[in-house]
Amino acid sequence: MEPPSREMETTLFEKAMLGKWDEVVNICTENPMALVSSITRLQDTALHLAVSDGQEQTVRKLTEIISEQPNPEMVLGVANKRGNTPLHFAALMGNVAMCKRIAVVDSSLIALRNHEGETPLFMAVLFGKKEAFQCLAQMLTLDEVYSCSRRKNGDTILHSAISGDHFDLALHIIKLFGEGLVNAVNEEGIAPLHLLAEKPSAFPSGSRLGFFNRIIYHCIYVINDDHKDVVPHDYYDPQLPMLPVDQGRPKYERNRPNYPDNYRTCVNFFRLFWNFITFGMYYVTGRCFSFFS
User: Fold this and answer.
1) Are 159 and 197 in contact (CB under 8 A)?
2) Residue percentage of the chain with pLDDT more than 90
3) What's the number of CA atoms in the CB half-sphere (13 Å) around residue 293?
4) I want to staple 123 with a disulfide (CB 3.0 to 4.6 A). Which of 16, 49, 92, 194 is the partner?
5) CA-to-CA distance for 202 and 199, rounded, in angstroms?
6) ∠ at Cα 242 (239, 248), nearest 5°?
7) 3-class secondary structure per residue, the chain
8) Are 53 and 43 in contact (CB under 8 A)?
9) Could you tell me if 50 and 97 are in contact, meaning their C-beta atoms sit under 8 angstroms apart?
10) Which of 277, 280, 269 is nearest to 212 (CA)?
11) Which one, of 54, 67, 56, lies nearest residue 28 by Cα?
12) Cα–chain-centroid distance for residue 175?
């Protein structure tokens, strides 16, 4: 099969820029070699552009064409001028569907590095895309995830998560690796805890919050991963009896307000405020009644 001509590459670029993705797919179907053609100044391919534009259906169709070719992982691993593959783009965008679609062809694509030494797994953390990180990490062994978690300057994914203020993701990484990354240092000898210490705003003692901001701070809802159900949400066992929600609970716990524990500060504050207003109204009404009587 002959490589695409310069004219075909120009046409492919123009169709992509105009959003005519069906025509892009048709061109690549007729000449699969067009899938490895660099059609922008940054040497992006049609798949790079489709991922960047969030075209999930186009990405699905193009990956299906690529999967039918010899060595599909080489086609999907074509990098642009900065060393980024289409999977890098999908990871930094946090698009889980496109990450799955590309990585399922060959999980080794998750370990490919750009010119900064960043893997798609690293890129997901760099941009705070927790779902994309989890998606890619689930396709690798723990050792493989660990090997993908450093870039050229020695920064780990934990360094990156803390630097970007993605603390929820950082906590998830710590739970995944334990002390393996907590004590890791980069080329400058900086550990993730050093970076955290440089962010006093991450702690209440390091921020001068006003009265109402302190209330909001204590009312922020934090999801606790430790209490997530182990059984998938779509699991159903017909042998289990259907019991009322309150059955089996002590009487004093039944019919209690259904809000997270850390909302209690907010609820108690508004209760106090409401009681104050109610008492004031009764007091003013009583004074007025005694004045006119």
Assistant:
1) no
2) 56
3) 6
4) 92
5) 6
6) 115
7) CCCCCHHHHHHHHHHHHCCCHHHHHHHHHHCHHHHHCCCCCCCCCHHHHHHHCCCHHHHHHHHHHHHCCCCHHHHHCCCCCCCCCHHHHHHHHCCHHHHHHHHCCCHHHHHCCCCCCCCHHHHHHHCCCHHHHHHHHCCCCHHHHHHCCECCCCCEHHHHHHHCCCHHHHHHHHHHHCHHHHCCCCCCCCCHHHHHHCCHHHCHHHCCCCHHHHHHHHHCCCCCHHHCCCCCCCCCCCCCCCCCCCCCCCHHHCCCCCCCHHHHHHHHHHHHHHHHHHHHHHHHHHHHHHHHC
8) no
9) no
10) 269
11) 67
12) 16
Residue closest to 192 by CA, chosen among 142, 166, 157, 152: 157
Tokens 């590309």 appear where? Answer: 102
Q: Which two tokens stand for residue 235?
A: 């699991």
- Position 60: which residue type? R
pLDDT of residue 232: 36
β-strand partners of 156: 150
Superfamily for domain range 6-152: Ankyrin repeat-containing domain (1.25.40.20)
Per the CB < 8 A criterion, the answer to whether 155 and 186 are in contact is yes
5-45 pLDDT, tens digit each: 889 899 999 999 999 999 999 999 999 999 999 999 999 99
Residues in the chain: 293
Residue 192 CA to residue 260 CA, distance in Å, equals 30
Which tops the pLDDT comparison, 242 or 226? 226
Q: Tell me the C-alpha distance between 36 and 78, whole Å.
A: 7
For the chain, the structural domain boundaries read 6-152, 208-227+247-293
- CA 144, distance to chain mean position in Å, is 20
